[in-house]
Design brief:
The chain is of the alpha+beta class. It has three domains: about 5-155, Jelly Rolls (Sandwich); about 165-210, no CATH class; about 215-275, Homeodomain-like (Arc Repressor Mutant, subunit A). About 40% of the residues lie in helices and about 20% in strands. It comes from Cupriavidus taiwanensis (strain DSM 17343 / BCRC 17206 / CCUG 44338 / CIP 107171 / LMG 19424 / R1) (Ralstonia taiwanensis (strain LMG 19424)).
Length: about 280
């Protein structure tokens, strides 16, 4: 059904039912969608209509309908429409640990350009980029993630051998941060938990999970904030419960990570509940 003319320029985002380690959305935006921001996940998507324009690695990129977008963890990017008509897209956000479960200690695949027409990636993302109303069975999602990890490694030319970093230390650090994300974690704690000095551990963590230990900790707090806001918590309560020093501290990190203030994010997300 066509959208009424009075709502034709309304931005919206629809979310799939969340599954462990993967977030799936479909969205429509006109004009400026997101300010510069960065995730600690892969952002992999497909443009469905219009021109999806974004800044990535010091260049402007335009994704056309049918193109596949692959943004590496922790790479700053923004988002806007390339024409007056706006753009529509689907995107999945995949935690690097899910690809590491497949790659087994190899360096994370990196695609320089951010936009690709490679048929291997188009095929490997087909199941994961279905309409958000489609439910993926656990085995279906697992198989699709494995196919995608292998396709990314092949297209990126990732060496088949393991990286020289300490994968076990990085894994232990991630587990420790996950379990203690709502409080301050010290470098001494991480060294004790992993048996690795802080500088080597930081390098290992970036190699295997695409971000720094502190960024990983902050993202887990922001995940908690989004869950609390969806459940009706105030901004101040969500910030405190998630482990931030205060609301302004949380808001700064939220905007840098998602390209939207918490208030704007709630406004756009509110269109989902409103139908």
């Amino acid at each position: 059904m066509n959208r009424p003319a009075s709502l034709s320029r309304a931005d919206w985002v629809r979310h799939a039912r969340p599954t462990e380690g993967v977030e799936r959305i479909e969205a429509w935006f006109h004009g400026k969608a997101y300010a510069m921001h960065r995730h600690d996940t892969y952002a992999i998507g497909r443009t469905l209509a219009g021109v999806q324009r974004f800044s990535y690695r010091r260049s402007q990129r335009d994704s056309l309908p049918g193109n596949t977008i692959v943004l590496h963890p922790d790479e700053p990017h923004d988002g806007q429409a390339g024409t007056d008509e706006g753009f529509r897209y689907r995107m999945i956000y995949v935690e690097p640990v899910l690809f590491q479960n497949v790659l087994g200690g190899r360096a994370l695949p990196f695609l320089e350009g951010g936009v690709t027409t490679d048929p291997r990636l188009a095929a490997a993302t087909e199941a994961l980029l279905q309409h958000v109303g489609c439910t993926l069975e656990p085995l279906e999602q697992s198989d699709a993630l494995a196919d995608l990890a292998h396709a990314l490694a092949a297209v990126a030319g990732t060496p088949a051998r393991r990286s020289s970093g300490d994968y076990l230390a990085a894994y232990r650090a991630r587990e420790y941060l996950q379990a203690n994300c709502t409080r301050v974690v010290t470098l001494d704690e991480l060294e004790a938990a992993t048996g690795r000095d802080r500088w080597s551990l930081s390098h290992d963590f970036r190699t295997f999970y695409g971000t720094s230990p502190y960024r990983y900790l902050t993202m887990r707090r922001l995940d908690a904030v989004r869950h609390l806001l969806r459940a009706g918590s105030s901004l101040a309560d969500a910030a405190a419960l998630a482990g931030f020093a205060d609301q302004s501290h949380m808001t700064r990190h939220f905007a840098k990570t998602f390209g939207l203030t918490p208030g704007r994010w709630l406004q756009v997300a509110g269109r989902i509940r409103g139908g």
